[in-house]
């Protein structure tokens, strides 16, 4: 959002990243990713995978900025903690790419959203990279 001109909200960002770290720590220990497909929700897991793609892009942006103030150091530490879970992304995508897992009721009952979320996770740039636009208008070309 900041790339689109939104005011920076460092306190909000810090709170969101802290919550994400806590949530991922819990989730990683829960064993949910080791469950069979009938006990899992693909769209929820794929949402996590998309979020992990965003973390990686945030890390890359911060690396390019090369700032060394206290706020950047805190952000670097938070993103570093989240990057420890980046391998979950591939595990989730590989699991739900399996035709066998896509035959489960948990996939077929939510097929539309599952397919959209899987496609977004596999090719996240269209979702995670917004075009830079002017503050007055958005032009959509067909």
Protein model, in words:
The protein has 142 residues and is mainly alpha-helical. It has one domain (2-128). The chain is 66% helix and 0% strand. It has eight helices and no strands. It has helices at residues 10-30, 42-65, 70-83, 87-97, 99-102, 105-108, 111-122, 125-128. Helix 2 (42-65) packs antiparallel against helix 3 (70-83), helix 2 (42-65) runs antiparallel to helix 4 (87-97) and helix 2 packs parallel to helix 7. The protein is elongated. The two termini are 24 Å apart.
Q: Give the beta-strand count.
A: 0
State the secondary-structure class.
mainly alpha
Total domain units? 1
Span from first to last CA?
24 Å
Helix content: 55-70%
The sequence of SSEs as H and E is HHHHHHHH
Radius of gyration: 17 Å
List segments where confidence is low: pLDDT < 50 over at least 5 consecutive residues: 132-142
Work out the helix count.
8
Q: Report on the biggest sheet.
A: none
Q: How does the overall form come out from the CA principal axes? A: elongated
In terms of DSSP E residues, the strand content is under 5%
Mean pLDDT: 87
Write the layout of secondary structure elements.
Layout: H1 10-30, H2 42-65, H3 70-83, H4 87-97, H5 99-102, H6 105-108, H7 111-122, H8 125-128
Please describe the structure with a list of short key phrases separated by commas or semicolons.
mainly alpha
